[in-house]
Amino acid sequence: MALTAERIAELNELCRRFRIDVLTAIHAPKSGHPGGSLSVCEILTYLYQEHMNLDASKADDPDRDRLVLSKGHAAPMLYRNLAEKGFFPVEEMSTLRRMGGLAGHPNMHTPGVEMPGGPLGQGFPAAQGMAMALKLNGSPAKVYAILGDGELNEGVIWETAMSAAKFKLDNLIAIVDYNKVQLDGTTDEIMPLGDLAGKWESFGWTVLECDGHDIEALDFCVSVADGAVGAPTVIIANTVKGKGVSFMEGQNAWHGKAIDDESFAKAMEELGGEINA
């Protein structure tokens, strides 16, 4: 069933709030990755708050959907969504990158995290393994692997893509956060990806493409991917690095730059947040 206009508006409002909370969490320790956290906001929010079969009160349900954030540096947005789902109190966002608190990259000590993310490329093959195990167990669950476009530089990504197609893992959905900017510059400057859709197709994947900040478009593509038979699906989600904060958008400097007080105040003004939140 298609999302109603009211529900789309609710999810967009959640995204606005999550951007505020994530930037607040990153600003406090003066450490973190704002750019990629903001670009993946709608993708994670749609999946966690609307689509996935996942219940914090039944966290070990063998038939739950799984999400692997292979681009682990976007952990703050993952945490905010897990908190909203009830895996831990929202107040724990204030412990980001603090001793004993939420780690800078996902790890298995955090409730709701299915797989650590950090070394780029390593989460995707783990997601494939989960999908294969679920197939063998006859489970209806899906596995969603969130990849960064800079992460596609890693050879293991394409080894996994080749393997997943061989085993016809139609319960595996990869979503590329295609913001076209990585740590040191644009993807075209660092390692051009060329015909990205054509690459995935040549590896035997069904390819869909959409605006990764459009909830309705994400809903359509994910729903199509869920119905795939005989092959894995990749959704190339066109996004903007630092989406929602004008001076961060499209700027590689904000991949992992600390947010100073002046920049934080400007961001909160644009997002409608409180400076002393």
Textual characterization of the structure:
By secondary structure, this protein is of the alpha/beta class. About 40% of the residues lie in helices and about 10% in strands. It is built from ten helices and seven strands. The strands form two sheets. The protein has a five-stranded parallel β-sheet with strand order 1-2-3-7-6, with helices on both faces. The chain has a two-stranded antiparallel ribbon with strand order 4-5. Helix 6 links the parallel strand 2 and strand 3 (about 170-180). Helix 1 (about 5-25) packs across helix 4 and helix 5 (about 125-135) runs parallel beside helix 6. The longest helix is centred in the N-terminal third of the chain and has 23 residues, at about 5-25. The termini are far apart.
Condensed summary:
The chain is an alpha/beta fold and 277 residues long.
Shape: globular
Return Rg in Å. 18 Å
Largest sheet: 5 strands, parallel
Low-confidence stretches: none
Question: What keyword list fits this structure?
Answer:
globular; 277 residues; alpha/beta
Which secondary structure elements does this structure contain, and how are they paired or packed?
Elements lengths: L4 H23 L6 H6 L1 H11 L14 E4 L5 H10 L38 H14 L6 E6 L6 H12 L5 E7 L2 E2 L2 E2 H4 L5 H7 L3 E6 L3 H12 L6 E6 L22 H11 L6
Parallel strand pairs: 1-2, 2-3, 3-7, 6-7
Antiparallel strand pairs: 4-5
Helix pairs in contact: 1-3, 1-4, 1-10, 3-4, 5-6
